[in-house]
Write a structure and sequence with these properties.
4-stranded antiparallel β-sheet; 46% strand
């Protein structure tokens, strides 16, 4: 008699920022799982300590849980660990320290450079201004409503264009 095995771990979204994440564990078990024995599922962010994935449901061979990604978690790969599931014969699953993984991006994007440089004097009012971001942006979030150019305290009229290839917005 074999102990239950993890067939697959699915994390939605697969690359996650801050907020709620759904973790689904699919078990492989020939004689059936004992759904009264709840598995323990944890997620360990890069360089961090394990965080419990809170159970939502467990039926047949599928366990579903949720975890909240916080800004204090390091960006990078987080490992999903699973232990404690049992089959109907009582065979208890040993810990699988690396049943799955998810990439966490807990750091928001930042402007890493501007052309012309910030606070540069003598820039023509007709000059194109470019901001380069630290990571790919959602194109829907880069617009005239979300980015602005100011001359003192007066906003300059203009249009923003985003280029995903260069990670830059041009005004």
């Amino acid at each position: 008699t074999e102990k239950p095995k993890v067939d697959q771990v699915s994390v939605n979204p697969g690359v996650t920022g801050l907020g709620r994440v759904i973790v689904i564990v699919y078990f492989e078990e020939a004689i059936g799982l004992d759904n009264s024995v709840e598995p323990t599922v944890t997620m360990t962010p890069s360089g961090g300590t394990p965080i419990t994935v809170n159970p939502l449901s467990f039926d047949a061979n599928t366990w579903t849980g949720t975890v909240q990604i916080l800004s204090s978690y390091s960006s990078g790969q987080a490992v999903i660990s699973v232990s404690g599931a049992a089959d109907v014969a009582g065979n208890l699953r040993a810990a699988d320290a690396a049943a799955g993984a998810v990439r966490i991006d807990s750091q928001g994007p930042a402007v890493v450079s501007t052309i012309p440089p910030q606070e540069q004097a003598g820039v023509s009012l007709s000059a194109r201004v470019k901001a380069v971001f630290s990571e790919t942006m959602d194109p829907e979030s880069v617009s005239d409503q979300t980015l602005g150019l100011f001359l003192g305290d007066q906003q300059v009229e203009g249009r923003v264009e985003y280029d995903q290839t260069s990670l830059s917005a041009t005004f």
